[in-house]
């Protein structure tokens, strides 16, 4: 039995609230159970210096956690004077995941930065961030299309979403919360497109190595879960009143 009482293939309750931020070109508050992440997409009419005059744009991400996103207060990284390795690794993952489904040439010489701020953490912050970041990015492109800057569906080639899976108490389970994640025998994060393409897999055996058969079970769970998340993304985008 999982601590939450969920079935092995049952995700937490997932929701998206578009247009959460008044000022951002695109924004989404995404919730995976008690993990809540605010994703805001900001447009700049410039690209990094190394991309100048290259005829294409850039999509990048930044990630951070509020001091009381967890049970104990964490010191702000800004006050420490540098980002931690975990933060850098996660924001690079988010950026890679988004760029996997973006036509950078169709974007033009512009940069979109998606900020993912964890308001409350209960496991799976990076997977929630990726899934919500896609919605914020799509709304940013919709904002641009309304101003005849781009064709959103030309820039964004597919959906992308992410989910965690792992082996907990000897069982393969999906969408680990903190209690499961902290005690999992194997922990993995899967990033996939709407078409089922694999963008990235991060998997670690915390104790005993896991088998190829167990990995394929986790991959199957992730594929089904990400398919459900993509359908949720489509549904929330079809609600024009939500933006």
Structure description:
The protein is an alpha+beta fold and 243 residues long. Helix content is 33%, strand content 28%. The protein has seven helices and nine strands; from the N terminus they run E-E-E-E-H-H-H-E-H-H-E-E-H-E-E-H. It has helices at residues 77-80, 85-99, 104-107, 125-146, 152-155, 178-181, 212-238; strands at residues 14-18, 26-32, 35-44, 58-65, 111-120, 160-168, 171-174, 186-193, 198-205. The strands form two sheets. The chain has a five-stranded mixed β-sheet. It has a four-stranded antiparallel β-sheet with strand order 7-6-8-9, sandwiched between helices. Strand 2 and strand 3 form a beta hairpin. Helix 2 crosses helix 4. The longest helix has 27 residues, at 212-238. It is globular. The protein starts with 13 loop residues before the first strand and ends in a 5-residue tail after the last helix. The mean pLDDT is 95.
Write the layout of secondary structure elements.
Layout: E1 14-18, E2 26-32, E3 35-44, E4 58-65, H1 77-80, H2 85-99, H3 104-107, E5 111-120, H4 125-146, H5 152-155, E6 160-168, E7 171-174, H6 178-181, E8 186-193, E9 198-205, H7 212-238
Parallel strand pairs: 4-5
Antiparallel strand pairs: 1-2, 2-3, 3-5, 6-7, 6-8, 8-9
Helix pairs in contact: 2-4
Binding site for phosphate: 86, 124-126
Pfam families: RNase_PH (PF01138), RNase_PH_C (PF03725)
Catalytic activity: tRNA(n+1) + phosphate = tRNA(n) + a ribonucleoside 5'-diphosphate
């Amino acid at each position: 039995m999982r601590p939450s009482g969920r079935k092995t293939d049952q995700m937490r309750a997932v929701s998206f609230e578009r247009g959460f931020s008044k000022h951002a070109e695109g924004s989404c508050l995404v919730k995976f159970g008690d993990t809540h992440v605010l994703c805001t997409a900001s447009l700049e009419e410039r690209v990094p210096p190394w991309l100048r005059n290259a005829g294409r744009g850039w999509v990048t991400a930044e990630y951070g956690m509020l001091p009381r996103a967890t049970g104990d207060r964490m010191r702000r990284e800004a006050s420490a004077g540098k980002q931690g390795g975990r933060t850098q690794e996660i924001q690079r993952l988010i950026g890679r995941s988004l760029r996997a489904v973006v036509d950078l040439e169709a974007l033009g010489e512009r940069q979109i930065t998606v900020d993912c701020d964890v308001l409350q953490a209960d496991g799976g912050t990076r997977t929630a961030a990726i899934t919500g970041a896609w919605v914020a990015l799509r709304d940013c492109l919709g904002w641009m299309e309304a101003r005849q800057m781009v064709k959103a569906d030309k820039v964004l080639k597919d959906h992308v979403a992410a989910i965690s899976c792992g082996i907990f108490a000897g069982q393969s389970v999906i969408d680990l919360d903190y209690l499961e994640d902290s005690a999992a025998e194997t922990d993995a994060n899967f990033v996939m497109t709407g078409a089922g393409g694999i963008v990235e897999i991060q998997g670690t055996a915390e104790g005993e190595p896991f088998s190829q058969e167990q990995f394929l079970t986790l991959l199957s769970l992730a594929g089904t879960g990400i398919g459900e998340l993509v359908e949720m993304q489509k549904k929330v985008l079809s609600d024009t009143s939500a933006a």
